[in-house]
Amino acid sequence: MTTAHATVTQHVKVKRATKSSWAGLGIAIPVLLVLAAAPYLVERGTQQQLVTLFSLIVLATMWNLLAGYGGMVSVGQQAYVGIGAYGLVYLADTIGLDPFVAVPLAVVIAGLLSIPISFLAFRLVGGYFAIGTWVIAEVVKQITMQIDALGAGSGLSLTSLTELSPGRRIAYVYWLSLIAVVLAVGVTYFVMRSRLGLGFTAIRDDSVAASSLGVRVTRSKRFVFVISAMGCALAGGMIAANTLRITPESIYSVNLSAFMIFMVVIGGLGSIEGPIVGAIVFFGLQQWLSDLGTWYLVIIGVLAIVITLFLPRGIWGLISGNGRIRLFPVGYRLVSPLERFALHPPSPDHADGEPDPKEPT
Amino acid sequence: MAPILEVAGLSKRFGKVITAEDVSFTVEEGSALGIVGPNGAGKSTLLSLITGVLPADAGAIVFDGKDITKISPGARSELGIARSFQIPRPFVDMTVFENVYVGAAFGGDSHGQAGYDTTAEALEITGLLPLSDVPAGQLRLLDRKRLELARALATSPRLILLDEIAGGLTEKELPPLIEMIKGLRDSGVTVIWIEHIVHALLAVVDELMCLAFGKVLALGDPQEVMRSPEVIEVYLGSTFDMGEAS
Ligand SMILES: Nc1ncnc2c1ncn2[C@@H]1O[C@H](COP(=O)(O)OP(=O)(O)O)[C@@H](O)[C@H]1O
Ligand SMILES: [Mg+2]
Fold first, then answer.
1. In which domain, by residue range, is B215 found?
2. Which residues form the domain of A68?
3. How far is the CA of A74 from the centre of ligand 2 (A)?
4. What is this structure's pTM?
5. Largest CB tally within 10 Å, which of A207, A341, B46, B87?
6. Is residue B184 in some structural domain?
7. Is residue B245 included in any domain, yes or no?
8. What angle do CA A327, B104, A185 make, to 5 degrees?
9. Mind listing the pLDDT tens digit for each residue in B84-114?
10. Interchain CB contact of A207 with B (< 8 Å)
């Protein structure tokens, strides 16, 4: 700044991490280590169920990135789930690529396709955007069903993975999925901590004010849109590798969008933890209630309504005391504003009120 | 001095409501232009046209020799145009510090430690430093107005557009604001200031423009503009706070 007020030479101190985030890291690392060892610890069926859970976490995280941070309520993310799933099967079975190369390639293809789609979708706002993304997903599905090489209306089976022994195949897919979920959450976290993420949060709160302060609103939204498409395609690849069979009706189902919305809403929109919690809860409900048939949907619907009414920040909002606990902090806390402007000389670096957490033992 | 802002034939209408009609004026770099005019004259709309939040129907805006009529608000902010909104638009779920840091990090292109310092400075100038970690949604109106100013300052602007920032201030709070804006102008920042409290405006501005029904009614020396018959007529019968021009 160029004003006459600039008389200070001391720097202000800003803190990005919180105590709870270090605690979160302390929990996350052992949990990830145990999860990484799961193929040696639990049976195949359990591993496959965990892959389902991981794909739900990826989907919820991506929908949250789009809606919770980008302010874009999409009902059409199944388009990219489908592209990811079909991409894997086609590239692996027909082209003959290694399935573990085919997945990232399919993800890139989905990202590239989402760029022209964004130009179409961004012409629509609010409810029209939601409907528009759904229509686009239906179009993608219809196009898929016209292509004989993609199995037309009846879908495809993934055969190249079945060359592996079932034990290996399931373990490999499990590890791939674990990497995917860490990647999806990790990328979201680092994007949201970056300057870009600051811009997204500003856009979500007030896009006009954000643009007046220099945030490139459309460019930022397009970036989130593409990242979210790639994440959903990754989940699609996980689903295809896990189930070994895809049909256009299931992989392009609008139910997937409904599930994503449900998970994010019950878990907590606009936080990184919320969608993870929402996915775990949804997965649990699916396991316990799926025998109930339609009642399962009724219970899920009622739960969504109750949480929307009474817990606007979702289950994670309740657990975290409305955001006081943050395992993935993205904010900026001013630690030492006053000493910078005080008349006395600033205190030494480590004396800013944060006690050392541990004595060396 | 060269003009930093040239507005030529700017027009904007909302349906039948004309909010800008063939508006033309220039502002010299490092000077301060005051804008007065009755409510609904199109003053705030003019700022939105200059910052690009609203597209113009016709006309051209040239900033520092560059035609910016078609570029996005974000790009204009990066070039050095900042604005405070008459009705504050805080990022309610972000803290006061984060709100202002958005201005520094994007419009000011100053992130990391340099951005934090710029942010703290803007907070200090506007008296918001003690509220740094408060969610902006919890601020009362006056602090929200200060936040508007702090965010605009944090972009390190070359041209700052202020929309009725003195409204609601007490007579005691007014002089520091006037001094701050003077200081800004004296440091080389060009100021366009919309204000109903005319004596505050006259204490700072080099030129005054009166808008009515989207048209430039008078433009020039502040005292002359205030004495011109057209301006007096527009204000006849309205509660116009002439105050004692200091
Ligand atoms: N987005 C909008 N849509 C429709 N009418 C608008 C919009 N913004 C402003 N107006 C109208 O334009 C006129 C000028 O508004 P404004 O620029 O806010 O006036 P001022 O700031 O001088 O009081 C008013 O009649 C207002 O109702
Ligand atoms: Mg106004």
1. 1-79+192-246
2. 9-347
3. 35
4. 0.83
5. B46
6. no
7. yes
8. 25
9. 999 999 999 899 999 999 999 999 988 888 9
10. no
